[in-house]
């Protein structure tokens, strides 16, 4: 069985994804790089323009959020359970929030995506192929914006902003005797992984040392280009599907029109319990 | 494989039991445990879905029907990874025999029956080692249903695969879902070399068969896991 084009791997065999109309935009980058601020501003800007926007962030799932907090506090996680808990959290948000929102045509902004899991797991010694397979059910985003920073610019920011926590400093990895040493080595390794992935997965790089408003401007420019391209495509598709009605081409109408299958799904078509193998509880969005 | 430096010479044996709900595997593993202990074998017992790490999440997920086939699978993988690290590997290294009521094959059978990709779930558990013996207690669906109805009269929601919407009737849903699980087990049996035990035979007859095979595991040090 080959990988699904919309997924990183084998996907979600029991879920329909052909009807996802929205756009999935992810912001990546290491700890303290300013992702959340940028997501919040971007969300507001998109909403003002009339887009429906949903944002989702790491460890925020209904299923796993509390459990992950408790596990991190207890320091009993190892690299396997660490990776798998994040994967569970991610899957819950993907299936319960991201996919239903995309199906309804929303713009979904993800604060961190699978790449964070890849970086953290690989830095902790996991097999890169294994962790990529674990996340094989994840949708490939339409755009990944990467807030790139070098470790020398990052460390003062991390230390200034707030107390660096145990995990952000990679203290579980015993890389250094104190927080500074550990944090520096850990973050250096993470950044190296992100940079590798930036090439591999075609991230859009944005210099995270720039002033906040300049970063936001760059983000908006890229997002706007993506959404405009999307709009043009939808418009073209809609026109195509209207064609048989407008020109009353009996042959074309009889064939149901070339693009009839791509028409946006009406409410009645949104599956509830009709599809076999789909959990009854998973349809509420 | 060369023995790593500092590793104790004698590694404990890992013996696992598999089968659908109501196959009688838990009864058998408890009998085996007592027997081994009586013979002076140091034994540690661990069962599926029992780590503290994700207990709350699993409980909540099940209670509120939050689980999808994928999150169901990942939660159980997390539970397993935690137990592998804290309840299985250290004991084996210390030369203690570990008895596991269900192992990764349960995940393979159930998760595939729930609709996740066959290859994905196998790769997910790539970190788990092969047990020294995997006993598969095979029973027809009707026998399993009769046993479960007789013992507790109530079938659990996820055990019956009610999350899949196969049938509104729990017994019928159980029959359909566990039927799929059974099919998967049969497929796995050859692939992973299960020791198949006919679960419809008497408890004593099954246990004799299990003990016979387990004792061979101990009497032949050549079979020692490397």
Verbal overview:
The complex is a heterodimer of chains A (285) and B (226). By secondary structure, chain A is an alpha/beta fold. Chain A has helices at 35-48, 65-74, 79-103, 114-123, 128-134, 151-161, 179-201, 212-247, 250-254, and strands at residues 23-28, 53-57, 107-111, 143-148, 204-207. Helix content of chain A is 49%, strand content 9%. Chain A has a five-stranded parallel β-sheet, with helices on both faces. In chain A, helix 1 runs parallel beside helix 8, helix 3 packs antiparallel against helix 4 (114-123) and helix 6 crosses helix 7 (179-201). The two termini of chain A are 30 Å apart. Mean pLDDT of chain A is 86; it is low at 257-285. The model of chain B is unreliable at 222-226 (pLDDT under 50). In chain B, helix 1 (25-38) packs across helix 8, helix 2 (55-63) packs antiparallel against helix 3 (69-93) and helix 4 (104-114) crosses helix 7 (170-192). Chain B has helices spanning 25-38, 55-63, 69-93, 104-114, 118-124, 141-151, 170-192, 203-219; strands at 14-18, 43-47, 97-101, 133-138, 195-198. In chain B, strands 2-3-1-4-5 form a five-stranded parallel β-sheet, sandwiched between helices. With 226 residues, chain B is α/β, with parallel strands linked by helices. Chain B has eight helices and five strands; from the N terminus they run βαβααβααβααβα. At the A-B interface, helix 2, helix 3 and helix 5 of A face helix 2, helix 3 and helix 5 of B.
Measured distance between first and last alpha carbons of chain B: 6 Å
The biggest beta sheet of chain A reads: 5 strands, parallel
So what's the overall shape of chain B?
globular
Low-confidence stretches of chain A: 257-285
SSE run of chain B: EHEHHEHHEHHEH
What fraction strand of chain B?
5-15%
Question: What's the β-strand tally of chain A?
Answer: 5
Reading side by side through the largest sheet of chain A, how are the strands ordered? 2-3-1-4-5
Mean pLDDT of chain A: 86
């Amino acid at each position: 069985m080959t990988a699904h084009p919309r997924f990183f791997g084998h996907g979600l065999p029991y879920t329909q994804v052909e009807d996802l109309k929205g756009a999935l935009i992810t912001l990546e980058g290491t700890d303290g790089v300013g992702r959340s601020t940028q997501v919040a501003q971007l969300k507001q800007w998109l909403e003002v323009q009339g887009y429906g926007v949903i944002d989702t962030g790491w460890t925020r799932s209904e299923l796993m959020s509390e459990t992950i907090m408790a596990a991190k506090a207890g320091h009993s996680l190892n690299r396997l359970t660490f990776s798998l808990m994040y994967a569970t959290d991610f899957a819950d948000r993907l299936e319960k929030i991201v996919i239903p929102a995309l199906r309804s045509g929303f713009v979904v902004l993800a604060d961190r995506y699978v790449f964070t899991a890849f970086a953290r797991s690989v830095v902790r010694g996991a097999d890169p192929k294994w962790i990529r397979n674990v996340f094989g059910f994840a949708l490939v985003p339409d755009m990944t914006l990467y807030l790139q920073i070098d470790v020398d610019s990052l460390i003062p920011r991390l230390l200034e902003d707030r107390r660096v926590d145990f995990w952000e400093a990679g203290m579980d990895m015993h890389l250094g005797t104190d927080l500074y040493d550990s944090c520096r080595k850990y973050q250096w390794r993470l950044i190296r992984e992100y940079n590798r992935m930036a090439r591999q997965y075609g991230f859009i790089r944005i210099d995270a040392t720039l002033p906040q408003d300049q970063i936001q401007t760059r983000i908006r420019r890229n997002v706007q280009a993506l959404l405009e391209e999307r709009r043009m495509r939808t418009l073209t598709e809609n026109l195509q599907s209207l064609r048989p009605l407008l020109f009353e081409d009996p042959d074309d109408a009889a064939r149901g029109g070339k693009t009839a299958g791509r028409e946006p799904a009406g409410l009645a078509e949104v599956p509830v319990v009709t599809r076999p193998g789909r959990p009854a509880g998973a349809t509420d969005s | 494989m060369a023995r790593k430096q500092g590793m104790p010479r004698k590694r404990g044996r890992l013996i696992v039991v598999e089968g659908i709900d109501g196959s009688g595997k838990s009864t058998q593993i408890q009998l085996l445990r007592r027997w081994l202990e009586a013979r002076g074998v140091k034994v540690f017992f661990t069962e599926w879905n029992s780590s503290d790490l994700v207990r709350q999440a699993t409980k909540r997920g099940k209670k509120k029907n939050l689980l999808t086939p994928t999150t169901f699978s990942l939660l159980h993988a997390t539970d397993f990874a935690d137990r592998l690290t804290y309840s299985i590997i250290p004991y084996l290294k210390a030369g203690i025999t570990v008895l596991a009521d269900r192992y990764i094959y349960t995940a393979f059978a159930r998760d595939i029956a729930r609709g996740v990709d066959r290859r994905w779930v196998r790769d997910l558990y790539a970190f788990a080692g092969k047990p020294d013996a995997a006993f598969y207690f095979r029973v027809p669906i009707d026998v399993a249903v009769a046993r479960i109805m007789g013992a507790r009269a109530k079938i659990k929601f996820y055990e019956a695969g009610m999350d899949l919407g196969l049938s509104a009737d729990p017994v019928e849903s159980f029959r359909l879902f566990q039927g799929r699980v059974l099919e998967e087990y049969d497929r796995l049996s050859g692939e992973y070399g299960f020791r198949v035990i006919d679960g419809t035979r008497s408890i004593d007859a099954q246990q004799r068969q299990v003990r016979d095979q387990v004792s061979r595991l101990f009497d032949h040090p050549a079979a020692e896991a490397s």
